[in-house]
Description:
- There is one protein chain.
- This protein is α+β, with helices and mostly antiparallel strands.
- The protein has 3 helices and 2 strands; from the N terminus they run H-E-E-H-H.
- The radius of gyration is 24 Å and the shape is elongated.
Amino acid sequence: xxxxxxIEKTCAVTRKGQTTLPxxxxxxxxVAEGGQIIVRAEGRRITIEQVEAExxxxxxxxxxxxxxxxxxTEGHVGTLSDDLLESLQSALKDVEVDxxxxxxxxxxx
Length: 109
């Protein structure tokens, strides 16, 4: 297996600390105008990578679109009954939930 080609370009740094990625590097990374990159410094070595696109799930997107349309047209989605709401609140009264807390480990849906 051949080693990947090495591309080396010299870039100027502006007074504000900005630089321009050479076209060949942007093409190699697949970064278009407005795209994002990750710049990582390890000692004196700098690596640049493309930010991976956020995962999207067409089934979830379709489901959410269905729910949004239903809500917009006052379809079948409604509020919980008072009895069900009270039952859920009672069952979860001692459960602490932090919606901003990161999820650790594998998640199976």
